[in-house]
Design a protein that fits this description.
binds adenosine-5'-triphosphate, five-stranded antiparallel beta sheet, Beta-Lactamase, alpha+beta, binds magnesium ion, 14 helices, Helix Hairpins
Length: 488
């Protein structure tokens, strides 16, 4: 309900005036032209630890400590207001009452009547303390961001850069001033810009961070620097997205180490392979060489001549097969255009048919269970057949006394899982991770090349799948091939 001042009697009006003055959270003093205090409100008495009797009717010089009067020039200012009849606003004053910690006030001097001014003092100690605390936290956060070795930047909702830390300055060669206001996507190469924009759009409507690798284009590096980015939505107090915080790590160092590692792995593999090739090709070549020596002898019989020629032919074929396999092994990827839709169940059935004869000779029972009739993969059926042929042959070799070869095919979450289990010798635990290495073999010299499983590994990888082995030595082995299901 609003108060109608016209209806309030004179005495009540004064009472109301004092009640109001006492209720406000600021200190109020009325001062006359001789700089005596005419009246004060309760707040001033409380803050200054004084009572009414030793304040009202006293000169200002007795009410305020002399240091304050000197520092603020309060008396002169009050005189000025009396002369000019104009208020003085928002001046700072530090006030210390006996036994009470220092407080900070903003004061105003307002002309009220010809012979009265009002000194209004607002205690801002708590506000100052809080804003100093906020500034301290801000300074702390800023120094954390500034001293980070990763790029830390923030953008508005459209992707315009708001802040850009010193790691960003150092990596990009752009100062925070130069980067400010530019679109973040403009630091990406033309072909990445669109995907970066899409990610940005996603972040703006989600609560979760997003990770991606993009090049950062810089004035001094036209090719860009590869950076791993983490984008997070920036929320305000009402959980509204107001922009993004983007943290980026320079991958150059990691790439360099990876490259070095790959290089050294390549060299090791090359060493292993060179040894293997030498070993494997030397045998057929030695046979060819001695057969050729016999051929040079004019006295050999026609039959022996024929036999030597045959030996040369078969051994050259052997050497050529090894080289052919090695070349296939060295191919790291298949051309997409070579890949067609292949029904894996047909591949498995056809390959098993080639095995039935040898299996029955060795008293091996074949069990084949298919979950679905048609299992589609993208690939090259000849190569897939080679994979399973190698795996089946290994299993058959591992069961010289007979046993069971079981093949099961399952489809789980878009993956086809083929398990080829045998009841043969099994693989010693220490060898499980070696059987896919080129030239690793337990076959006697001149039999297995030890390339079978390494070729399988390479072909399966080319088909974007994986291959692994499980075994307990003496209890058979299982080779597990996983390939991505192709939904036609
Ligand atoms: N099912 C299995 N049971 C037991 N050991 C196996 C089985 N499959 C593979 N191995 C082991 O892994 C080794 C490597 O197999 P891989 O097929 O690469 O070469 P290989 O069969 O010896 O020779 P290649 O296949 O080149 O004629 C084998 O020599 C054998 O010791
Ligand atoms: Mg083999």
């Amino acid at each position: 309900m609003m108060l109608d001042f016209k209806k309030v009697p004179e005495n009540d009006f004064e009472l109301l005036y004092h009640t109001l003055l006492d209720a406000i959270p600021s200190s109020v003093l009325m001062i006359d032209k001789s700089l005596n205090v005419i009246s004060v409100n309760r707040n001033f008495l409380l803050k200054s630890q004084r009572n009414k009797a030793d304040t009202v009717g006293r000169p200002l010089a007795q009410v305020f400590p002399s240091v304050i009067l000197e520092n603020t020039g309060l008396e002169n200012r009050i005189r000025t207001v009396f002369q000019s009849n104009l208020p003085i606003n928002a001046q700072k004053m530090t006030y210390r009452a006996p036994g009470v910690p220092i407080r900070i006030y903003y004061y105003s001097i307002l002309p009220i009547q010809k012979n009265q001014v009002m000194l209004l003092m607002e205690d801002v100690t708590e506000q100052m303390r809080l804003s100093e605390e906020v500034r301290r936290v801000e300074r702390h956060l800023a120094s954390v961001v500034e001293s980070a070795s990763d790029i830390v930047l923030s953008t508005d909702i459209q992707g315009r850069i708001l802040t850009w830390n010193s790691a960003a300055e150092k990596l990009s060669g752009l100062t925070a001033h130069e980067a400010h206001g530019q679109f973040f996507f403009d630091f990406c190469s033309a072909h990445q810009k669109q995907s970066m924009r899409l990610i940005f759009k996603q972040i703006m409507s989600s609560n979760d961070p997003h990770t991606a690798e993009f090049d950062l284009l810089t004035p001094n590096n036209g090719n860009g620097i590869l950076i791993s980015w983490v984008f997070s939505p920036m929320k305000d107090d009402y959980s509204q997205t107001v922009g993004a915080v983007v943290v980026g790590r320079d991958l150059a160092e990691r790439r360099k180490l990876e490259l070095q590692l790959r290089q050294s792995q390549k060299l090791t593999a090359l060493g292993v392979m060179a040894g293997g090739i030498a070993h494997e090709i030397r045998n057929p070549l030695a046979v060819c060489s001695s057969a050729a020596q016999f051929l040079l002898d004019d006295n050999i019989t026609a039959d022996f001549h024929k036999e030597c020629s045959k030996k040369i032919q078969t051994n050259l074929q052997k050497a050529s097969d090894i080289i052919k396999n090695l070349l296939r092994f060295s191919r790291s990827s298949l051309d997409d255009t070579d890949m067609v839709e292949v029904d894996l169940s047909n591949v498995l059935k056809e390959t098993l048919e080639l095995m039935t004869n040898q299996a029955s000779v060795q008293k091996i029972r074949i069990e084949f269970s298919l979950q679905n009739e048609h299992i589609l993969v993208m690939g090259i059926s000849g190569l897939l057949q080679q994979v399973f042929m190698n795996i089946f042959l290994n299993a058959i070799h591992a069961m010289p006394e007979g046993g069971v070869l079981s093949i099961t095919v399952d489809t789980v979450e878009g993956q086809i899982i083929v398990r080829v289990a045998d009841t043969g010798t099994g693989i010693p635990a220490g060898e499980l991770d070696k059987i896919f290495d080129p030239f690793h073999t337990s076959s006697p010299a001149g039999h297995g090349t030890g390339l079978g499983l390494s070729i399988c590994y390479s072909i399966v990888r080319q088909h974007l799948g994986s291959i692994r082995a499980e075994s307990s030595y003496g209890e058979g082995a299982t080779i597990i091939v996983t390939l991505p299901y192709h939904y036609s």
